[in-house]
Amino acid sequence: MTSSFTVHDASGYEQLMGRWSRKLAPSFIGFAGFAPGEKILDVGCGTGSLTFELAKSADLAAIAAIDFSPVFVEAAKRRNTDPRIEISQADATALPFADHAFDRALALLVLHFVPEAGKAVAEMRRVTRPGGVVAAVVWDHLGGMAGMRMMIDTVAALSESGRQLRGRYCFQPMMQPGEMKRTFIEQGLADVTETELMIRMDYQDFADYWTPISAGEGSLGKYVTTLEAAERERTEAAVRDAYQAGRPDGPRSFANVAWACRGVAP
């Protein structure tokens, strides 16, 4: 499996997205549900936003967490102090677990970075017991992420490469209304439901927004690192202007919507 997400440093990811995935995790758990004594799989755990939120429940028997990135796996292992949690490096499209090994298989902000997203859903279904739950959530890049679209639309207005970035970013897998639901149904899951979850991303100032991007984290950061020095400075100035919107630099808050989907394993 390949991943379209770029990560250089776990702390950079935390500033770019980890802090926001932690805000999303409780709502996603509420949607996916859990019951006492269950064994849960976290597919694409990153630095552990969902894993450690799940671990706040003393009623769970075990939590397995996997990620494709060794950087994320190492960071999550360093944070872990819970004997119920086992973290390992693995491929979401070829999970190293037996059939029906878990009561629930969950994926927080992962499937849109998996080129073979349908195959990952099929694997999540395979390792979930009959009657268990498969659930996933992804950002709505096209219509639900005002703060990120602010940069995307700015760079699209500056250059053809920016326009190409916008096309890739806005139409990643699983992001269109009903797309995850159709995939869940195609992979044999029953009682499939889809809903929207929302958080707000609150930044202290432009530097808080821009620092992880300028360091090359994520797809936006990867784009910035491809620019020549002069074009990078031009891009930063334009995005700063969009962020500040004619007012002094300082706090800004952006609404961010995610698509969430769950189904029952046959």
UniProtKB/TrEMBL annotation:
Organism: Mesorhizobium australicum (strain HAMBI 3006 / LMG 24608 / WSM2073)
Record's protein name: Methylase involved in ubiquinone/menaquinone biosynthesis
Family matches, as PANTHER family: 2-METHOXY-6-POLYPRENYL-1,4-BENZOQUINOL METHYLASE, MITOCHONDRIAL, METHYLTRANSFERASE
CDD domains reported for this sequence: AdoMet_MTases (cd02440)
Gene Ontology terms: biological process: methylation
Highest taxon above the source species: Bacteria
Coiled coil (residue ranges): none
GO molecular function: S-adenosylmethionine-dependent methyltransferase activity
Span of domain Methyltransferase type: 41-135
Keywords, ordered alphabetically: Methyltransferase, Transferase, Ubiquinone
Gene3D superfamilies the record matches: Vaccinia Virus protein VP39
Keyword Nucleotide-binding: no
InterPro entries in UniProt: Methyltransf_11 (IPR013216), SAM-dependent_MTases_sf (IPR029063)
Keyword Transport part of the UniProt annotation: no
